[in-house]
C-alpha cells in the first residue's frame, strides 16, 4: 500500500460526516416505497397497496424508533448519534421530513390515485354525495351495527380526559348546552371492529365506499341529544409500543413479558395526527391532555390512517393488480409431479432455495413435514421467530412430538409485535409434548435454523436448513429470502452445538461453517473485509459484495471505508437503512450502494468476498446493525456447494446490472432512481436461473 493510501485509510476514522443519520435514512427508505405508489405506470391497486404500506411503516417507525429516541431524551443525558446530532436535533429534522412525506403521501392519494380509482368504478365518497336510497340503508346500518358500540366520553371537571388507545381514530366533538350556552368537549372513538370503508351499495355499483368516520359524523347528533353540535374533528394518536423486559434469571420470562405487554397499551403518546382543518383551540386541548409538543403533531390533508387502504387492495379486481405469480417447486425437489425424498436429495448435494420464486410450501415446509412423518427421524430441533397463525410447520412439529419424536423448539417470545402470538404458540407446543425454550437471557434468538436427526443403517445422519427468513408460509409469498438445505456433516455438527448452547449451558463461540452473533459475526466480517484490503494492497484480486436490509454498524462501515481506500471494489445492496456514505473522494470512491424496492420485500442477507480468486459466500439472518450483532443470536452460514455459489453469483450480477431499475445512493446522501428493467420480474421469468 502506498503512503498516501495508508494515510487515507487511517484518516477514515476521523473523516467528518462519514455517517448518515439512521432515522433519516429509514425515512428515505419509506420515501422509496412512496415512489412505487407514485408510479403512474404501475397497476392501480398495487399503487394503493404501497400507499398502505407507507402508512403502516410510518406507524411502526413512530411506535418504536421515535419512542426510543424520546425515552432516551427523557433521561436528561446529552446523547449524540454517530453523525453528530443531538436527540433534539434528530427529532426536529425527523418531524420536518415526516411532514413533507405525509403531505406528499396524501397528495398522491387525493390528487392522483383517488380520481383514477373513480375512473375504474371504485369510489370513496362523503356523506353529502350519497343518494337518498343509499342514505336510508346507511342510516339503518349505523343504527344496527355502529351506534350500539359508540361511547361518547365527556371531558369536564367530573369526567377526566379519557385514555386514547394507540392508532385509533377519534372524533373530537365540541357541543353546547342550548340553555346555559356553555361549551363542552367530548371524544368519540371510531370503532376498529367495524369496517373502515362502509359499502354504499348503489343500484349499479358495489364499489362505492363511505369512510366510517363520515357515517358517524353525519349522525353525531344522536350521541348528544338535547345539545347542539358545534364542531367535530378527526384525530389519531400513536403511542410508544416498544416492549422493554427487565430480564432476570430468577424470574419466569413468559410471565414478565405478559406483564409488560399489558403496560404497552398505556405507553406515552409520541405522535398526534390531525386533519388540516383541525380547530386550533381543540388542537391545544389535545396537545395539553396528551402531553405532546407541536413538533409531535402531523397535519394530514384528506383521510387519516391510509394504512386502512389495504382493504381496497382486497377487492376482486385482478385487472388492476399485478399478474398473479405462482411459485414453482425447486427442480431438485420434484420428480415430475411427485415430490422427492428430501433425505435422498440432500445426500446428493445441497439445495439453495430462493423464495418466493421457489415455493416455500414444497421446500422448507415439506422438509419439516417429511421429517415429522418419517419413522426413521428421531429428533427435530428448530427456531421460531415469527410464524403465521395457522402454521403448517407448527402443526408438523406437534404431530412429530405426538408420534414420539424428540422435538425441541426455541420460540422467541420477544419478537416485536408478535409477542402474544408467540406466547400462544409456545403454550400450544408445550401441551403437545414439545420441549419449548425461550433462548438466552438478554438476547433475542433471531436465527432461522432447523436440524433433523435421522437413523440410517444404524448410523445417525443430520439434515439442516439455515435461512434468511422466518418459518412463515404467508410472508414467504411476499418476502424475498434465501435458504440452504444440506446434509453437510460440518453444518450438522455446528447446528447441534448451537442448539446445545441455546437450550443448555454451553458457552461455545466458534464453529466450523458458521459465524454466530453476538460473539462471531462482527469479528468474522471485520477479518474478511480487512483481508480483502490486504489483497488489494498486494495487487491480488479483491472485492466485496453485501446484501442486507440495513447497514448501520460503525465498525463495519469504517472497515469498508478502509477497504475502499485500499482499492477494493465494494458493492452494497441495501434495502432500507444505510448509514454509510458512498462515492466520497478519499473515503469511499470505490463503494457503490444500490436499493431495490419492488413487488417483493427484499429480505435476504448475503455476503461475498472475492478472497484472491477463491470466493467465499455467506448467508444468514443478520443485518449489520448493533442489535443484530450485539444483542441477538444470529447465524451466517458459509456456502460450500458450487452450484449454490454460482446461483448467488448470478443473482448479484443480475441485481447490479446497469439497466436494472433501482435507487442509487450518492455522496450527498440522496437516493436517485435509475434503470428501467425490473430485476424481480427477471427472476420470476427464470432469466437468472442456471
From TrEMBL:
<feature type="binding site">
    <location>
        <position position="57"/>
    </location>
    <ligand>
        <name>ATP</name>
    </ligand>
</feature>
<feature type="domain" description="Polyphosphate kinase C-terminal">
    <location>
        <begin position="514"/>
        <end position="677"/>
    </location>
</feature>
<dbReference type="InterPro" id="IPR025200">
    <property type="entry name" value="PPK_C_dom2"/>
</dbReference>
<keyword id="KW-0067">ATP-binding</keyword>
<dbReference type="InterPro" id="IPR025198">
    <property type="entry name" value="PPK_N_dom"/>
</dbReference>
<feature type="domain" description="Polyphosphate kinase middle">
    <location>
        <begin position="137"/>
        <end position="312"/>
    </location>
</feature>
<feature type="binding site">
    <location>
        <position position="603"/>
    </location>
    <ligand>
        <name>ATP</name>
    </ligand>
</feature>
<feature type="active site" description="Phosphohistidine intermediate">
    <location>
        <position position="446"/>
    </location>
</feature>
<protein>
    <recommendedName>
        <fullName>Polyphosphate kinase</fullName>
        <ecNumber>2.7.4.1</ecNumber>
    </recommendedName>
</protein>
<keyword id="KW-0418">Kinase</keyword>
<dbReference type="Pfam" id="PF13089">
    <property type="entry name" value="PP_kinase_N"/>
</dbReference>
<dbReference type="GO" id="GO:0008976">
    <property type="term" value="F:polyphosphate kinase activity"/>
</dbReference>
<keyword id="KW-0479">Metal-binding</keyword>
<dbReference type="InterPro" id="IPR024953">
    <property type="entry name" value="PP_kinase_middle"/>
</dbReference>
<dbReference type="Pfam" id="PF13090">
    <property type="entry name" value="PP_kinase_C"/>
</dbReference>
<comment type="similarity">
    <text>Belongs to the polyphosphate kinase 1 (PPK1) family.</text>
</comment>
<dbReference type="Pfam" id="PF02503">
    <property type="entry name" value="PP_kinase"/>
</dbReference>
<dbReference type="Pfam" id="PF17941">
    <property type="entry name" value="PP_kinase_C_1"/>
</dbReference>
<feature type="binding site">
    <location>
        <position position="416"/>
    </location>
    <ligand>
        <name>Mg(2+)</name>
    </ligand>
</feature>
<keyword id="KW-0597">Phosphoprotein</keyword>
<comment type="function">
    <text>Catalyzes the reversible transfer of the terminal phosphate of ATP to form a long-chain polyphosphate (polyP).</text>
</comment>
<dbReference type="InterPro" id="IPR003414">
    <property type="entry name" value="PP_kinase"/>
</dbReference>
<feature type="domain" description="Polyphosphate kinase C-terminal">
    <location>
        <begin position="342"/>
        <end position="507"/>
    </location>
</feature>
<dbReference type="GO" id="GO:0046872">
    <property type="term" value="F:metal ion binding"/>
</dbReference>
<keyword id="KW-0547">Nucleotide-binding</keyword>
<dbReference type="InterPro" id="IPR036832">
    <property type="entry name" value="PPK_N_dom_sf"/>
</dbReference>
<feature type="binding site">
    <location>
        <position position="575"/>
    </location>
    <ligand>
        <name>ATP</name>
    </ligand>
</feature>
<keyword id="KW-0460">Magnesium</keyword>
<dbReference type="GO" id="GO:0006799">
    <property type="term" value="P:polyphosphate biosynthetic process"/>
</dbReference>
<dbReference type="InterPro" id="IPR036830">
    <property type="entry name" value="PP_kinase_middle_dom_sf"/>
</dbReference>
<feature type="binding site">
    <location>
        <position position="479"/>
    </location>
    <ligand>
        <name>ATP</name>
    </ligand>
</feature>
<feature type="binding site">
    <location>
        <position position="386"/>
    </location>
    <ligand>
        <name>Mg(2+)</name>
    </ligand>
</feature>
<dbReference type="GO" id="GO:0009358">
    <property type="term" value="C:polyphosphate kinase complex"/>
</dbReference>
<feature type="domain" description="Polyphosphate kinase N-terminal">
    <location>
        <begin position="19"/>
        <end position="125"/>
    </location>
</feature>
<dbReference type="GO" id="GO:0005524">
    <property type="term" value="F:ATP binding"/>
</dbReference>
<keyword id="KW-0808">Transferase</keyword>
<dbReference type="InterPro" id="IPR041108">
    <property type="entry name" value="PP_kinase_C_1"/>
</dbReference>
Amino acid at each position: 500500500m502506498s503512503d498516501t493510501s495508508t494515510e487515507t485509510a487511517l484518516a477514515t476514522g476521523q473523516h467528518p460526516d462519514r455517517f448518515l443519520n439512521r432515522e433519516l435514512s429509514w425515512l428515505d427508505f419509506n420515501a422509496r416505497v412512496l415512489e412505487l405508489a407514485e408510479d403512474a405506470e404501475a397497476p392501480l391497486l398495487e399503487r394503493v397497496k404501497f400507499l398502505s404500506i407507507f402508512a403502516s411503516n410510518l406507524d411502526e417507525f413512530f411506535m418504536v424508533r421515535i419512542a426510543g429516541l424520546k425515552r432516551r431524551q427523557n433521561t436528561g443525558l446529552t446523547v449524540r448519534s454517530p453523525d453528530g446530532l443531538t436527540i433534539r436535533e434528530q427529532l426536529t429534522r425527523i418531524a420536518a421530513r415526516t411532514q413533507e412525506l405525509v403531505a406528499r403521501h396524501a397528495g398522491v392519494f387525493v390528487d392522483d390515485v383517488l380520481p383514477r380509482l373513480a375512473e375504474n368504478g371504485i369510489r370513496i365518497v362523503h356523506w353529502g354525495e350519497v343518494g337518498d336510497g343509499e342514505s336510508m340503508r346507511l342510516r339503518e346500518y349505523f343504527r344496527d351495527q355502529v351506534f350500539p358500540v359508540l361511547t361518547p366520553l365527556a371531558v369536564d371537571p367530573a369526567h377526566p380526559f379519557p385514555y386514547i388507545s394507540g392508532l385509533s381514530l377519534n372524533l373530537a366533538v365540541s357541543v353546547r348546552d342550548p340553555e346555559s350556552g356553555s361549551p363542552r368537549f367530548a371524544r368519540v372513538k371510531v370503532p376498529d371492529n367495524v369496517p373502515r370503508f362502509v359499502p354504499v351499495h348503489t343500484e349499479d355499483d358495489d364499489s362505492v365506499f363511505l369512510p366510517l368516520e363520515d357515517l358517524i359524523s353525519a349522525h353525531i347528533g344522536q350521541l348528544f341529544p338535547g345539545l347542539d353540535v358545534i364542531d367535530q374533528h378527526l384525530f389519531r394518536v400513536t403511542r410508544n409500543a416498544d416492549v422493554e423486559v427487565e430480564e432476570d434469571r430468577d424470574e419466569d420470562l413468559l410471565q414478565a413479558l405478559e406483564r409488560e405487554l399489558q403496560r404497552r397499551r398505556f405507553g406515552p403518546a409520541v405522535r398526534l395526527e390531525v386533519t388540516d382543518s383541525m380547530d386550533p383551540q381543540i388542537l391545544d386541548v389535545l396537545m395539553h391532555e396528551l402531553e405532546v409538543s407541536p413538533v409531535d403533531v402531523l397535519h394530514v390533508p384528506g383521510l387519516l390512517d391510509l394504512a386502512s387502504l389495504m382493504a381496497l387492495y382486497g377487492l376482486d379486481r385482478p385487472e388492476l393488480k399485478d399478474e398473479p405469480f405462482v411459485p414453482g417447486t425447486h427442480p431438485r425437489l420434484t420428480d415430475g409431479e411427485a415430490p422427492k425424498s428430501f433425505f435422498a436429495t440432500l445426500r446428493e448435494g445441497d439445495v439453495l432455495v430462493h423464495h418466493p420464486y421457489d415455493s416455500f410450501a414444497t421446500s422448507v415446509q415439506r422438509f419439516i413435514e417429511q421429517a415429522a412423518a418419517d419413522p426413521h427421524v428421531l429428533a427435530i430441533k428448530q427456531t421460531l421467530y415469527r410464524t403465521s397463525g395457522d402454521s403448517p410447520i407448527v402443526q408438523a412439529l406437534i404431530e412429530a412430538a405426538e408420534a414420539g419424536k424428540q422435538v425441541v423448539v426455541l420460540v422467541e417470545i420477544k419478537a416485536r409485535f408478535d409477542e402474544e402470538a408467540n406466547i400462544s404458540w409456545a403454550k400450544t407446543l408445550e401441551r403437545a409434548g414439545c420441549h419449548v425454550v425461550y433462548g438466552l437471557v438478554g438476547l433475542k434468538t433471531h436465527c432461522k435454523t432447523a436440524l433433523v436427526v435421522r437413523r440410517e443403517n444404524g448410523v445417525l445422519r443430520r439434515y439442516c436448513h439455515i435461512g434468511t427468513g422466518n418459518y412463515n408460509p404467508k410472508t414467504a409469498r411476499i418476502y424475498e429470502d434465501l435458504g440452504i438445505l444440506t446434509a453437510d456433516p460440518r453444518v450438522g455438527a455446528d447446528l447441534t452445538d448451537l442448539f446445545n448452547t441455546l437450550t443448555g449451558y454451553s458457552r461455545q463461540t466458534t464453529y466450523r461453517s458458521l459465524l454466530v452473533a453476538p460473539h462471531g459475526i462482527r469479528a468474522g466480517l471485520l477479518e474478511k473485509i480487512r483481508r480483502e484490503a490486504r489483497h488489494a494492497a498486494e495487487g491480488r484480486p479483491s472485492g466485496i459484495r453485501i446484501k442486507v436490509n440495513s447497514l448501520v454498524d460503525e465498525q463495519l462501515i469504517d472497515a469498508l471505508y478502509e477497504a475502499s481506500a485500499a482499492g477494493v471494489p465494494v458493492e452494497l445492496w441495501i434495502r432500507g437503512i444505510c448509514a454509510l456514505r458512498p462515492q466520497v473522494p478519499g473515503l469511499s470512491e470505490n463503494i457503490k450502494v444500490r436499493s431495490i424496492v419492488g413487488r417483493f420485500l427484499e429480505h435476504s442477507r448475503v455476503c461475498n468476498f472475492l478472497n484472491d480468486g477463491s470466493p467465499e459466500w455467506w448467508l444468514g439472518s443478520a443485518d449489520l446493525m448493533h442489535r443484530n450483532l450485539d444483542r441477538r443470536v444470529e447465524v451466517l452460514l458459509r456456502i460450500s456447494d458450487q452450484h449454490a455459489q454460482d446461483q448467488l453469483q448470478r443473482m448479484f450480477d443480475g441485481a447490479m446490472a446497469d439497466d436494472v431499475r433501482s435507487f442509487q445512493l450518492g455522496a450527498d446522501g440522496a437516493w436517485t432512481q435509475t434503470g428501467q428493467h425490473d430485476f424481480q420480474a427477471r427472476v420470476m421469468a427464470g432469466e437468472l436461473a442456471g
